[in-house]
Amino acid sequence: EASEYAKQHGVLFMETSAKSGLFVKEMFLTMAKELSNRIPLKTTSSSSLLGHGQAWEGGGGVDSSGVKAGSCC
């Protein structure tokens, strides 16, 4: 039932077990990879928290002096 719901709504579905730990690590790794594929990245001239030469276009962050930058809350 949950698998069919996920298919109908175009979302990822994985069966896991918190009790036994079955597929929990795999689920987090898969979700992290899926989310990273959905976040638009742009090339910058300096390194950032996302890696060398990449920055998240969502705004916010910290500038070189350690001050919060952008329009994030």
Shape type: flat
Number of helices: 2
Radius of gyration: 17 Å
Helix content: 25-40%
Strand order of the largest sheet: 1-2
Proportion of residues in β-strands: 5-15%
How confident overall, as mean pLDDT? 75
Counted beta strands: 2
Indicate the structural class. alpha+beta
Measured distance between first and last alpha carbons: 38 Å
Characterization of the model:
This protein has 73 residues and is an alpha+beta fold. The protein is built from two helices and two strands. The longest helix has 15 residues. A two-stranded antiparallel sheet has the order 1-2.
Give the topology, please.
Layout: H1 2-9, H2 24-38, E1 41-43, E2 54-56
Antiparallel strand pairs: 1-2
Brief write-up:
This protein is 32% helix and 8% strand.
Q: What are the salient characteristics of this protein?
A:
single chain, 73 residues, alpha+beta, two-stranded antiparallel ribbon, 2 helices, 2 strands, flat
